[in-house]
Amino acid sequence: MTVLKTTVLVLDSAEPEPLARFYAELLGATAGPATGDGDLFLVTGSSGAVLGIRRDPNHAPPSWPAPQDSQQAHLRILVSPDSLDEAEREAVALGARPVAAEDDGSQLDHRTTLRRFSDPAGHAFVLAADS
Q1: Which end of the chain is more exposed for a tag (fewer CB within 10 A), N or C?
Q2: Would you call 86 helix, strand, or coil by DSSP?
Q3: Side-chain half-sphere CA neighbours of 59 within 13 A
């Protein structure tokens, strides 16, 4: 018998509450402190998906996209192809920093279908067309 488990991807941040609010607004979710853990904020979506933001006073943002560093873990946020531009505007308005836009060759008009960003704490995330 498998023990019931819940998976939570946790990002470290010197200031977890503002970063949790960033992701809550970007994903149309809610954010709040975890019960019994003042250093962890949880972002919960309507589907129950959870992202954790943990306080780490010594957090140093990833140096990606510096060429000598790898991207490592990142969030991939899927949106409909016709909403990609709007999702990008929302992300930037909330404080995301654009890093790169890529064309996967699937669009006849050569529009990008994958857009890379850094969140306000420097973690990588991607807005990708869910075709």
Answers
A1: N
A2: helix
A3: 19
AA letter at 56: D
Interval 52-100: pLDDT, tens:
999 999 888 777 666 666 556 778 888 888 888 899 999 999 999 998 7
- Lowest average pLDDT, out of 6-20, 41-55, 110-124, goes to 110-124
- Please tell me the chain's helix, strand, coil percentages from 3-state DSSP, rounded to the nearest 5: 20, 35, 45
Residue 116 phi/psi, 5-degree rounding, is -100, 140
Phi/psi of residue 51, each to 5°? -125, 135
Q: Is 15 helix (H, G, I), strand (E, B) or coil?
A: coil
Distance (Å, whole) CA 23 – CA 118: 12
